[in-house]
Design a protein that fits this description.
The chain is mainly alpha-helical. The protein is 54% helix and 4% strand. It has 2 domains: 3-89, Orthogonal Bundle (DNA polymerase, domain 1), CATH 1.10.150; 116-281, Orthogonal Bundle (hpI Integrase, Chain A), CATH 1.10.443. Helix 2 (22-41) crosses helix 4 (70-89). The protein starts with a helix and ends with a helix.
C-alpha cells in the first residue's frame, strides 16, 4: 500500500464515517502528505504499513526543528494520529505507531474581547445611507446577537429564519444544525434588510435561499465579511485586532459575565466540549481583586488593622 492510495481511502472514511467537511478532510490529508514527504527525505519506509513509532517520533522532532508554531505542530500530529487510527479501525495495521506521540504544550490564548460599548461603536459605524449599509448593519447585528461563526453567517438560509418565534437555524461544523435565539434588535434589522434591500435585488440562480447577498445577487463571501468588519472597526477608531470572530467572542463573554448558564452558552455556540466554552469565564481582574479583599478572611483581617 502506498501513501496516495491510503490517503484516498482515508478521505472516504472521513467523509462517510465521520461526516467531516471538505475543508477539514483536506487539512488532515495535507498533514499525512507532509509526513510522507518527510519519510521520503529521510530515506525511511515509504509504505504507511511499514511505519514504526520511532519514525513518527522522528517526524515530531523534525517539525519542531523547522520552527513551526506550536499550534501548527499540534495540528499536524493530530492529523497523523487520525490517519493511523483509521488504519487501525480498518484492520490495515495491528499497532498504532502514533499512539505514544506527544505534541507541544499549547498555551491557551485568550480571545480579543470587545466591551459592550465597543460593540455599539462598531454597529453605529455603519453608514445606513450607503446602498449596502442596511445589509451590513443586519449582518453585524446577527453576528453579535447569535454568536455565529463567519461561515455560519454566510451560509444562513432564508428557510432557516424563524423570526416570529425568535430563532434562527444554524448549520455549524460537520453540518450539525442548532437553533439559536435571535434578539428583537437583530431580528428587526434583519427584517428591514430583507424587506427593503434584498427583495429589490436581482438574485442569481442558485442563491435564492441565501440570506446575505452581494451587489451581484450572489451569496456573500467570508472574505467580504472580513473586509466589512475591518472597515467598520477603522471607522469606529477601534485599535484592537478585529475580525468577524470577535463578535462571537463578545456574544459569549457578555452572556457569561451577565450570569448566563455555561451549558446554555455552549449549546448556542455549537461547542462539542464545555471546556472550549470555559475560556469565556475569564473575569475582570479588578472584580477579582475586590472579591478577595471583601471575602477572604486573611484579606479582611489585614483591612481591619488599617
Amino acid at each position: 500500500m502506498t501513501f496516495p492510495s491510503a490517503i484516498a481511502q482515508f478521505d472516504a472514511y472521513l467523509q462517510l464515517e465521520r461526516s467531516l467537511s471538505a475543508h477539514t478532510r483536506e487539512a488532515y490529508e495535507r498533514d499525512v502528505a507532509h509526513f510522507a514527504r518527510f519519510l521520503e527525505l529521510e530515506n525511511l519506509p515509504l509504505s504507511p504499513l511499514a511505519v514504526k513509532p520511532e519514525h513518527a517520533e522522528k517526524f515530531v522532532h523534525y517539525i519542531n526543528e523547522l520552527g513551526l508554531e506550536a499550534s501548527t505542530q499540534a495540528r499536524m500530529i493530530s492529523g497523523l494520529r487520525a490517519f493511523y487510527k483509521f488504519m487501525l479501525v480498518e484492520d490495515l495495521i495491528d499497532d498504532d505507531p502514533t499512539e505514544l506521540l506527544e505534541g507541544p504544550r499549547l498555551r491557551r490564548k485568550m480571545p480579543t474581547v470587545l466591551s459592550i460599548r465597543e460593540v455599539q461603536m462598531l454597529l453605529d459605524a455603519v453608514d445606513l445611507s450607503e446602498p449596502q449599509g442596511t445589509r451590513n448593519r443586519a449582518m453585524l447585528e446577527v453576528l453579535y446577537a447569535c454568536g455565529l461563526r463567519v461561515s455560519e453567517l454566510t451560509s444562513l438560509k432564508m428557510s432557516h429564519l424563524y423570526l416570529e418565534a425568535g430563532f434562527v437555524k444554524v448549520r455549524g461544523k460537520n453540518d450539525k444544525e442548532r437553533l439559536v435565539p435571535i434578539g428583537e434588535s437583530a431580528a428587526n434589522h434583519l427584517r428591514n434588510y430583507i424587506d427593503h434591500v434584498r427583495k429589490l435585488q436581482d438574485i442569481k440562480q442558485g442563491h435564492e435561499n441565501s440570506v446575505f447577498l452581494n451587489r451581484r445577487g450572489a451569496q456573500l463571501t467570508r472574505v467580504m465579511v472580513f473586509y466589512i468588519v475591518k472597515e467598520m472597526a477603522a471607522r469606529a477608531s477601534i485599535t484592537k485586532t478585529i475580525s468577524p470572530h470577535v463578535f462571537r467572542h463578545a456574544f459569549a463573554t457578555h452572556l457569561v459575565e451577565g450570569g448566563a448558564d455555561l451549558k446554555a452558552v455552549q449549546d448556542m455556540l455549537g461547542h462539542e466540549s464545555i471546556t472550549t466554552t470555559e475560556i469565556y469565564t475569564h473575569l475582570d481582574t479588578e472584580y477579582l481583586k475586590e472579591t478577595i479583599l471583601m471575602y477572604h478572611p486573611r484579606a479582611k483581617a489585614i483591612n481591619s488593622r488599617r
